[in-house]
Structures are given as C-alpha cells and as structure tokens.
Amino acid sequence: MSVQIVDTEAGDQHVLAETTPPPQPPSPPGPVPDDSPTLPASALQMVVTGLVVVAPLVALAVAIFRLWGHGVTLRDLLLALVLYLVSGFGVTIGYHRLLTHRSFVASRPLKVALTVAGSLAFQGGPIGWVGNHRVHHARSDRAGDPHSPVPRRPGLWGELGGLWHAHTGWLFRAGPEVAGKLVGDLRRDRDLTVVDRLFPVWCVLSLALPFAIGWAWGGTLGAGLTAFLWAGLVRVGVLHHVGWSVNSICHRFGRRPFPTQDRSRNVRFLALPSFGEAWHNGHHAFPRSARHGIERGQWDPSAVIIRAFERLGWAHDVHWPKPPGHHRPGVSPAPG
Q1: Residue 122, class by beta-carbon neighbours within 10 Å (0-12 exposed, 13-18 middle, 19+ buried)?
Q2: Domains in the chain: how many in total?
Q3: Of the ranges 58-62, 112-116, 245-249, the best mean pLDDT one
Q4: Phi/psi at 173 (nearest 5 deg)?
Q5: Taking the model in full, what pTM does it have?
Q6: Residue 315, domain extent
Q7: Is 69 helix (H, G, I), strand (E, B) or coil?
Q8: Engineering a disulfide at 323: which of 215, 263, 272, 327 sits with its beta carbon 3.0 to 4.6 angstroms away?
Q9: For residue 152, is it within any domain?
C-alpha cells in the first residue's frame, strides 16, 4: 500500500511524497572533516557564551541545595512553568517553524510576539538563530553543519566528542560564514531587525520578570530572589539543554521511520519537553511541515498551538501534512 503526504498551500495540494512502506534507512555518514569556514569568535563572545552556559548550571546546583534544605514554593514552580512555555514555544513556533522554515504565515502582531518570546530563551537573536539552523538543514551531518554529532575521528572518544560538540561545544565557535547569506528575507523585515537588535533587552527582561513577579507576589525580596533562581536561571538552563538535546541525542539515538540523508531520529521521551521538536526525523524528512509529529500518536504541542492560531485567523497558509485516505499503522510516508 502506498501513502501520499500532501502539503496544502493556498488551496492547492502538492504531493510531498508517495511511497510504499519505507526501506531500510541508509547507513549513517562517516566521520566529518572539520573544514567548514567560520567567522572568528571574539574573546568577548567566548566569555558571554561561557556565562550563558555555566550560570544556569550553577543556579541549578544552588536550587538543588536549597530544595534539599528548605523546599521550593508552588509560586516559583508556576512562574518557571509559565515562562518555560512562553520562551519555549517562542523558539519552536516562532524561531523555528515560522521564521526558519516558513511553515505558516503569521499576522504581524503574532510574528512580533513569537519572536520576542523566542528571544526570552537566551538562544541568540532570531536572525543569527535562523541562519545557523538553515545551514544545519542544508548540510545536515556533513561538513559545514554547525552542530552535527558525527565524530571528527573514529573510536569512542570521537563519538563522545561529537556528542559534546553537538550539545554544547558548537556554541563556542562562531557561526559559519554562509549563515549570513541565508537570512536576507529576515533582514528585509523591519520588525525582525528591530527585535534582533534588542536581543540584550529581552535577555534582561527574561530574568527581571520572574524577579519582579516573585517579589510582588510573595511580598518579600527573598521571594523575588527565589523566583529569579527557579523561574529565571534554572528555567533558562533546562530549556537550553532540552533544545541542545535535539541537536545531539536526536541525531544519534532513536527511531528513523523516514529515510533521510542524515542521522536525524525521533526520540519520544523528549517530545513533550521540546514541544514536538524531538520528532526530528519527521522534521528532516518534511522540513516545511508545521507538524513534526507526523505519525499517529506523536504528540506535538507546537502544532496544536499553530492550529489554534489558524482557527483564530492569526495564521494562514499553514503547511499541514495530510495522508489522503486511510493511514494504516506501520505504513509511514517518506521522501523519495
């Protein structure tokens, strides 16, 4: 039985793939030479990156120590959850599916709101983030991929080094030169260039908000400081490592229902904390799809919210993958 996956755009159905049950995926690529041209990283960039990576880890250690001795308030956890959702969906829906892949068209207020929300995640301004991610898709698991876990040398240490590079190490290198050439559409959008220039402001706001709300809600400076710790630094750190796990874990472990020319994989246990991003093999098979969890039973909270935006009239021209007719379990679409 063959299955079609179609993409509905402006009332027309464009067939993305027509397949029989997928063949065995190709073997993963071999070691990747580290020969991609990059812009030089400045000492200031290295220091700032180090602070962004290390500070949440230190905060997490402090938070664990405090939890062991005194507990954590429901107020702090609620603030952390709300800000995790806002900043996380800002990255997955705004930075990723809207700006990088143009999976849908958003109204101007929604576009700005999503981009600002993504900026609260401390993952870089939208233009740089999109440039790096477009390079990742263009060169996935090959030379020039900014954060592939494919080892640069054979053996166990090569594998571990590849995972380290994909998870965190790549942050200490400047982005590939070609990234700036892939974001001309964003640079022509005045709204996005303004949001991008104000990225440091959004970072300050991301930490100031939980402190101010915690102080006002709890009525004491101590309440503000614990909210800053849990809903500020710890929340940023957890979101960082969930997102970076898509780069590392989802290119090394998990299922490959769709044959692609890279090592992208689906990892179920990361699906909810990553808001659907961990259906990474499905995403690499159909990168413009607004839903990454293509198969039945794959939870994709970001797609649910995009659907709500569409029904409210805030989003249109959404790229939804749809199998015409019955989609039997075990029969999966795959690109030709």
Answers
A1: buried
A2: 1
A3: 112-116
A4: -115, 145
A5: 0.79
A6: 69-322
A7: helix
A8: 327
A9: yes
